[in-house]
Structure formats: structure tokens, C-alpha cells
Write a structure and sequence with these properties.
2 copies of one chain form a homodimer. Chain A has about 400 residues and is α+β, with helices and mostly antiparallel strands. Chain A folds into 2 domains: about 90 residues, OB fold (Dihydrolipoamide Acetyltransferase, E2P); about 280 residues, BirA Bifunctional Protein, domain 2. Chain A is built from 13 helices and 15 strands. In chain A, α6 runs antiparallel to α8. The longest helix of chain A is centred in the first third of the chain and has 23 residues. At the A-B interface, β1, α3, β6, β7 and α4 of A face β1, α3, β6, β7 and α4 of B. Chains A, B: This is asparagine--tRNA ligase. Chains A, B: One of its GO terms (biological process) is asparaginyl-tRNA aminoacylation.
Chain lengths: ~400, ~400
């Protein structure tokens, strides 16, 4: 039976094993050859007497039998035999050297064999688990968040969150136009209005023609909705979730974080610190700008220069907030969470729960009649939502086409 | 601070509490009124001296303060005060009586306030967690399944899994036609060819114009891909996963299963029993039909009449299997898992890993060049995949439009 490299690294020297991995580098010397292999769980060096290693080249998959030994720098395998399972050839697009992200975008189907992308994927996998675990076990007030899947194909084009992808054959199929969702938040309120506390975690889509890191066509978001939460409850929930994801990565992806040049100590400090909470008005006093809204530069200044850590900014001017946010005379009951080096990763707000206030503000009353119905029949105070851009910025793997 | 009903039901009589719920039924008598409320975590009866309950009607959300007491049948709340948080009116579409599924389809935005749909959603939420937990902790051989999100928007229209939804503005946006994915399986192989063992769990789409329970436009699937697994390893993994989801529901959704008229004892027996494994040839001997393939009726006969339990059928005729399955002289190395009362919930196969055998069978070599590349550079034995229809059949919530 084959062992995975991640499991192997916890064994003691002397352990005899077989393992399968893809060859990353081969260094042939007179007496011995050194082969670095990776099986997706980690990588290890195989040392084997030099002989016929014709097909043992970068990209090939090989089965190695040998003994775990303590090498000069790390655990390694003293190989007894090597069997080539899948050949490779000189056209294999990943060479020994480090590759640019641009090159990796051209060989998307192999890039997860690189250490950088594999590490990002392993962190993403663990982060996903941490998210579900958090909502299931550590809901702030007491247990009871339900995981909900909101529809991807939707008839609502009026949420104002971004440009839509339209489905061509939808009028044939559904009898009306349909689009890919830009957010599950409005649908999420249906479930908060019955189950009390829910979260979504699934793909959303934007058709803006801006191909930058901030404008991906397809990315995953987390959108919780809770009744009976205050603004403070909500940003506390959001920061607890963010901290718990980071903490989980520190415990489960230590080497991956190092592979991505993240300093575990810095991350630990972020988890342990109190995160700054300020109003928009105070933020503008600090950045000393007179215009409305916070620019990317101002956000950067607040987190990287002034506070040197995460900042939660509350109560933005009501003119620049969407129809569903609860508003006072001048400001909305909302917040953005800003991280140094990343920018906005969470936005959240109290929802307007009063039918008479909300109704004139709804952009397409016919399409959103169902949404207004939630206010008509048994509305509840303090709907909240938050959403996470962290996936969009840190981990998204662009589609293969 | 408000308590959730699910948490309340574990407290001792005498506990004083406030809670928020939606009114399901109200029965006013001369001295006392009986109000059944639900907060999405569960339901409880409130008994309160009759007075002005004008706005306490079905659908309204109310805040109740009172004491937990042991009633004649179950725990109930002896109410001190009631505050109406959100009114309702006579047009609220859920009356006291039981509703047909057809009626609930007409008021999709309220149906999760019914016991049946709420129970299905709570089971689905727990099942999702059980799935992630299984792959993270209980991978059959040893740890190491990574959760991967494969693209929803894809250029591949040639997997043969079903009709596609086309994205109208995709040629503007991507410079070529794009579709909604029918399966993440081929992309999943990229990650199995680097990370070793992965699973996807996300939405897939089918544009067949058959609006039956078996043909939903949008549903979630689980698609694991493993290298170095045998056919037996794979169907053992699939049945272990299925058993672990059922077991998790038995432990966490006991009342919900009863609400959905499932007998927990029957489910426990299914978890404890050995599941039958037979070849397609043997299955045909039992059903005594000469045609090729297994019809829904034959599947039903095997699970409900002959074996009275889950049946795994292996090695279907190679003519009726897709291009990517490994084939022998007459049969493919694949299986279907059939459950009584449900039908096929899992299909799986060994993949053809040999480039020379696979290449002539690929339907669109240009679009799938990347897929063939996986065989060219470092192919590995025994790619496997399984996928779960359980979500499609049991839990899917049709989009709201």
C-alpha cells in the first residue's frame, strides 16, 4: 500500500514504504541521483544509486520503494527501486526553474503541480473546512447556523451588485430571461426569515469587462444572514470568522504559508490583536480627504500606515449604499472590514425591515415582489449580512475555458 | 438575550427565557391561548392567558418572554408577555393545514417556514458538513482529500453528460462560447494529477427540457478523483461516505427525519448492513431481461424486491459507457450504486490512463487537448470518480426565478 508524503513526514526514520509522486527535479551525479518528488500532499527527496534513469524526468509519475532516513537537511527516502508509471517528455511545460504567474496561466492544467499553487489550494481546502466548522460550532451567540445553497440561475437582474452573465437558452427553457447570480444575499433573507441564521458559500459571477485581480468573472463568497443581530454582533462575527480561518491555517498549513512567503508570526499577531473599529466620519478625519466614500488609497493608508492592522469602518454615508441597507438621517447601519495588503474583504449591513420605508426604494418592484413579501408577512428586526471577498483575492483559480 | 428553540429544548423546566419565532398556529380559548411558534431551529407551544392577540396570527413574528414548563405532551412556554415584531395578514399563503408540494412551489419564499421543508434544509445543512468532515478526516486509506472548486463557466461542451446552458454574452467577454458546467469531473482530474486525492462539491447544470424529479436544471454534486485507487477501493469509499452521511443525520437530525416520515431504525439497519456488490452480468441474470443496460424498473427490482437494500452493480457493457472509462474486452471498470426508493445515487469508474487508447475516443480533441495532456505528461494508474445524485433527488430547492 502506498503512503502519502504528508503522512510519511510524521514517521520515524527506518520506516519502509512505497509512494507515488510526480518528479519535480532530477540531479544525476556519478554515484547517486537525487530526485525531488511531490504527490500533492507534500514533497520529499529520493536518493538512489545512479543507474538507468532515462524516463525519470520532470513531470513523470514514479513509484518509489525505499526507507525513510534522516538526511542532512530533512527526512528523505533512501530508494531501493523506482518504477515509471507515467512518462513525460521535454515538452512538459514546467521546468526546474521558478515560473512566473503569467507562464502558469498558460499551462493551467499543470500549474497545481507547482509548490506555490498547490500550497494555495491546500490552504483554500482547509479554509473551506474552517468556514463550515465555524458556522456549525462557533456561532457567536449560540449554535444554529444552517448552510444554504441559493440559486445560481436567477431572474433578478436588479440587485445593483454588478454586471450579469445572461443565459442564452433561458427564454426557451424557463420562459423568461435568466442570469448567473451576482450574490445570494436577497435569497439568503428568505431562509433567515424562516431558519433564523443561515450562511451561503458558493460561486457568484460578475460580467464587468475589467480583467484585474479585483474583477474576476467567477468567485466564491460567504454570505451569512441573521435575524436579531446588531451591527456590532455582525462585525464581531465577521472578525471571529476571519480570525478562525487564519488560526486554522496556522495549525494546518504551516509549511504552505511559508511556501507563499507568509510570516506565521505576523498572522498570529493579527489573530491575537483587538481589531480597530471606527466610524466612516472618523476615518475621513484621519485620511483628511473631503470627497465622499473611501478610496483604495485611503483604505490602504488606514490599515498599513495609521493602524497597522485590520480596521472595521462603520456607518458610511447613506447616499452611497444600496437600497436594502437600513439608513439613518445621514449614515447607513453598515460596515466594511479592511485588511492590510488585501483591502476590503467583508461588507455588511443591517437591512431595512420596514415595508413602508423599503417599498419606494426597491428598483424593480415586480421582480422583487417576493422580497417585499418578506417584510409584509412576519418581518423581523435586524437582518444582517456580511460577505467575504477573501476568496476572490487570495485563492481564486481562473476557469480553464 | 434571545434563546433559540433548539437550545431551549435541552434546558430544564423553570428556565426563564425570551425567544423570537414565527407564528404557525394560534388557538384561542376562553381562558388561555395556545400559540405554536417556530424559529427555524425547532418549534414550541406557548401558553398564555387570553387577552388582546389581534396581531398574533399565522406568519407574524413575535417575541415571547416566559418560563419553560413541562406540558402534557412536551416542553412548552408559559408566556408572560408577547410583542409583535412583524405583522402578517390574511393573505399570508401558509394556512394552518398541511399544504401540497404544488402549493408550496407557488410560495417558494415562504415554504421554508413549513416543518417539512425546514427539516429537509436542516438535514441538507448537516449532510453538507458530514461530507466535508468525511473527506477531511476519514479518507479510506489515509488522510489527504483536498476540497477543490472546479469552474462553473466552461468552454467544454463535449463531455456527453447532458444538454448545456450557453452564456449569451460570453463571446464578448471571453472571446469564445462558454457554457454552464454539467460536471466538474474532467477538471477534477487536473487536481488529482497533482494533489493526488480531491473532491468537488458544487453546483452543476443540465438544460434538458424534461421537468421531472430526475431532470433538474441546477443541482449540487460531489465528485471525488483519486489516483491509485482500485474499483473496489472506490465503491467502498462511496458506500462509506453514504453511510457516514446517514449516520450523521441519525445523530443530528433525529426529529427532522421523523418529520419527513423516515424511520430511524430502518436507516440504522442500512448503515450497519453489508451492501450487496454484484456484476452487471449477474444483475441481468436476476432481472431476467435480455436488453442492454439496466432500466429504472430493473434497478427498483434489485434493491426493493430481490436484495431489499443498497446494491452496487459493477462492470457495465463497454458500449454504453462514456469515452473516459477504462474498458476491457466486453465490460468497463465502472459501477453504479443503487438505493431502494431512490435509485442511482452514485456512479464511478476507473479512467483510461493510456494516451494511445484514449486519444482516438476523445470526442473533441481540440477542446480537450489539455485533458489528453494529463495522459501525456505523468499519467498515473487508476483515476477514479464517483458522483452523488443524492442532492438532486432529495434536497434540491428549485430556483426562485
Amino acid at each position: 500500500m502506498l503512503t502519502r508524503i504528508s503522512a510519511l513526514l510524521s514517521k520515524n526514520p527506518g520506516f519502509e514504504t512505497s509512494l507515488l509522486g510526480w518528479v519535480r527535479t532530477v540531479r544525476q551525479q556519478k554515484k547517486y541521483s537525487f530526485i525531488d518528488i511531490d504527490d500533492g500532499s507534500g514533497n520529499i527527496q529520493v536518493v538512489i544509486p545512479s543507474s538507468n534513469l532515462e524516463h525519470v524526468i520532470t513531470g513523470a509519475s514514479i513509484e518509489v520503494t525505499g526507507t525513510l532516513v534522516q538526511g542532512p537537511h530533512a527526512l528523505e527516502i533512501q530508494g531501493n527501486s523506482i518504477k515509471v508509471i507515467g512518462k513525460s517528455d521535454v515538452n512538459y511545460p514546467l521546468a526546474k526553474k521558478a515560473h512566473t504567474m503569467e507562464h502558469l496561466r498558460d499551462c493551467v492544467h499543470f500549474r497545481s503541480r507547482t509548490q506555490t499553487i498547490a500550497s494555495a489550494l491546500r490552504i483554500r481546502s482547509e479554509a473551506s473546512f474552517a468556514i463550515h466548522n465555524f458556522f456549525r460550532k462557533e456561532g457567536m451567540i449560540n449554535i444554529g447556523f444552517f448552510y444554504i445553497q441559493t440559486p445560481i440561475i436567477t431572474g433578478n437582474d436588479c440587485e445593483g451588485a454588478g454586471e450579469l452573465f445572461e443565459i442564452k437558452n433561458s427564454e426557451d427553457f424557463f420562459g423568461k430571461k435568466a442570469y448567473l447570480t451576482v450574490s445570494g444575499q436577497l435569497h439568503g433573507e428568505i431562509f433567515a426569515s424562516s431558519l433564523g441564521r443561515i450562511y451561503t458559500f458558493g460561486p457568484t459571477f460578475r460580467a464587468e469587462k475589467s480583467h484585474t485581480q479585483r474583477h474576476l468573472a467567477e468567485f466564491w463568497m460567504i454570505e451569512p444572514e441573521m435575524i436579531n443581530y446588531s451591527l456590532q454582533d455582525t462585525y464581531t462575527l465577521a472578525s471571529n470568522l476571519a480570525k478562525s480561518i487564519i488560526e486554522h491555517a496556522l495549525n494546518n498549513n504551516h509549511q504552505d504559508l511559508i511556501n507563499l512567503h507568509r510570516n506565521p508570526q505576523d498572522l498570529e499577531n493579527v489573530v491575537k490583536s483587538e481589531w480597530t473599529v471606527i466610524t466612516y466620519e472618523k476615518a475621513k478625519t484621519i485620511t483628511n480627504k473631503q470627497d465622499i466614500g473611501l478610496s483604495t488609497e485611503e483604505e490602504k493608508y488606514l490599515t498599513e500606515n495609521h493602524y497597522k492592522g485590520p480596521v472595521i469602518v462603520t456607518n458610511y454615508p447613506k447616499e452611497i449604499t444600496p437600497f436594502y441597507m437600513k439608513k439613518g438621517d445621514k449614515f447607513a447601519e453598515n460596515f466594511d472590514m479592511l485588511l492590510p495588503g488585501v483591502g476590503e474583504i467583508v461588507g455588511g449591513s443591517v437591512r431595512e425591515e420596514n415595508f413602508d420605508v423599503l417599498e419606494p426604494l426597491v428598483p424593480d418592484k415586480k421582480a422583487l415582489e417576493w422580497y417585499l413579501d418578506l417584510r409584509k408577512y412576519g418581518t423581523a428586526l435586524d437582518f444582517m449580512w456580511i460577505f467575504f471577498w477573501v476568496y476572490r483575492k487570495m485563492f481564486h483559480m481562473q476557469g480553464l475555458g
